[in-house]
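User: I'm writing a tutorial on reading structure tokens. Could you give me a worked example: one chain, its sequence, then its tokens, then a sentence or two explaining what the tokens reveal?
Assistant: Sure. Here is the example chain.
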Amino acid sequence: MPAFAKDGKERYGLTPDTRARFERCLSESAQPSLPLPSRAARTYLDVLFFHPFEDGNARAAMLALAFVLARKGVSLDHVHPLQTPRWADDAEGAADLAVLLSILITAEERRLSRGRQP
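And here are its predicted structure tokens:
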């Protein structure tokens, strides 16, 4: 469906190639040449900004992010820091999301290596 952002000030319409572009972007989440945090962040943002569902896109984006991490055996106990508004035209914000994911993954790996339970 067409997506609306920034309190309806912006509209992202559908085009004949929207589905193919979305699928192409999601396929990049499996490229091993990209760092895991970058792949997970990209997947999250792609679901948010392609807006494939009428409702629940933020939840779907978080599930997609978790799926990308889970394929590599990574799970995060703390995802609240990830759940903040994101803008499609914010390249620095996207990079910050990848950095934040890297920090959360590293913290989770340290916690597990010390034998602490969630």
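What the tokens reveal: The chain has a mean pLDDT of 84. Strands lie at 3-5, 10-12.
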